[in-house]
């Protein structure tokens, strides 16, 4: 992968879809307003304008355009997806007691947990208003199912994340819920609104699902090997928050008795001392789990690319394929 | 009003609608399940089975039956309304840092804030799944609008509740949002699913709106004059939580300089000492604001009863009328 910004596939997609993306931005600005409660657009703007890549709404637009859609409603669905994502971020930051998001202080820190919870609820409700507007029952079913799957994944994570019995299958369940469900719904509704044939809709779902899993695995990997500048996260945040992710799950599976005791103390019991993060990193290196996790991420990216096969030839198809490569290029 | 339990209008309605209410309970139990995250039904069951009166779903069933509906979907809509209500309660308890709800410890106390936020999100999503099932666009519009209005009312309350400039108009705005919006949506969708004529649907909306406002005013009044046994709340909770409600808003409007300073210190600045609640109660008595608030609640109940006029003669119509009287009888 070249590092030239112009070559980043999501930048190429954003340029290709720039008119649609502007329509999405305008709709988001319009719908995040509130006649009565100015706190709502304040909090939302803080997050929405923090410069996220808007990857998820772009996936919806790309899927719809690639399948030949010419109507106006892909914009509503893209905005719906972004509202669900934003609501999730607001609630996640409360749940994780986070202080930073996209390199800026979180809303729960700038305002309070109350505002984050309630403004998140408002955005959820707004997303449901938006998704009804195209009048498509299958679209509403897909997006409301995704919202339920996301919440279910987050609740599962609450109980699974600090439990050493959590294996790769449970991890995948959590990731499918908290991340991949919205990616796959984003691509799937693009195909559905375009009235694409069933095998193409299925292909779009599979692509979004695999891309979302790859994306989350990379995110979890960067928590142990990224640098703060590039990710806006500090190395070891997940360890400090006692969140079992794939690199540690793989290390636990290979742990001897002493190592197991270390993970039990630091993750399950949460008793962490100075030097524990370094020791954790040494164990990940000892069992080579960062490399194994990279390999998994690449496999999911390959799965995403392969899923695109039934879709018609299209510039956007090539960009989606490149996007899958790009997602995992951050770790190579 | 007689105090005989059998004469309580919501008990008569529950008896009249018992088959429907059982179907709603069964549907709620079915949909609060989660294949992957057992924490979800645990938390939900704690709240759902705590013996709430299920007033809101009953309103939907009553409206639909009164308008001659014979299909199955009023049950889905009633369950939708109860899920939205339950999600709101879970988030409210986090926002208010409450320790008790319906006479039992709150979910945020028994589990944690994280579970309350995320299980609330799950129930919101479940409610949206449910509301799509009847396949009625107007129903989805009404219920998703209500969800947005509820969240907007809650956010408005965040900023308005501790601001002495909050007048009766802003209070009404908050109450319409956080309480009446779900009552009016509950009754309105009952009429819509039954394909009732426009004037009857409007009447159902107006009834729910006025009943919801009366209900909330009474709730706020009981906070200052109820007894813990009857309400499950402690006298003065709203004062301690610095929540401006109608009795205090009326007292602030009549306050002399010294009294205003008292309200500024205790509500706006939140500096409360022993004896302050007693002094607040004395000021409410001095300006007779509890009586004035009672009068307002009764006017809203009358408005609710009058709204029923366009609806056809029906046993349920009489029960709804009695229900409006009953809601305010708790304060007489």
UniProtKB/TrEMBL annotation, chains A, B:
Which Pfam families does this one have? Answer: polyprenyl_synt
Please verify whether the record's keywords include Magnesium: yes
Q: Which CDD domains match?
A: Trans_IPPS_HT (cd00685)
UniProt keyword terms in alphabetical order = Magnesium, Metal-binding, Transferase
At the top level, the lineage of the source is Bacteria
Q: What EC number is given for this enzyme?
A: 2.5.1.90
Q: Which cofactor does it need?
A: Mg(2+)
Q: Which SUPFAM superfamilies match?
A: Terpenoid synthases
Any transmembrane segments, and where?
none
Q: Which reaction does it catalyse?
A: 5 isopentenyl diphosphate + (2E,6E)-farnesyl diphosphate = all-trans-octaprenyl diphosphate + 5 diphosphate
Q: Which Gene3D superfamilies match?
A: Farnesyl Diphosphate Synthase
GO biological process entries? isoprenoid biosynthetic process
MF terms in GO: all-trans-octaprenyl-diphosphate synthase activity; metal ion binding
What the entry lists under InterPro entries is as follows:
Isoprenoid_synthase_dom_sf (IPR008949), Polyprenyl_synt (IPR000092), Polyprenyl_synt_CS (IPR033749)
- PANTHER family referenced in this protein's UniProt entry, alphabetically: ALL TRANS-POLYPRENYL-DIPHOSPHATE SYNTHASE PDSS1, GERANYLGERANYL PYROPHOSPHATE SYNTHASE
Family statement: Belongs to the FPP/GGPP synthase family.
So what does this one do?
Supplies octaprenyl diphosphate, the precursor for the side chain of the isoprenoid quinones ubiquinone and menaquinone.
Q: What is this protein called?
A: Octaprenyl diphosphate synthase
From what organism does this protein derive? Sulfitobacter delicatus
The organism's lineage is: Bacteria, Pseudomonadati, Pseudomonadota, Alphaproteobacteria, Rhodobacterales
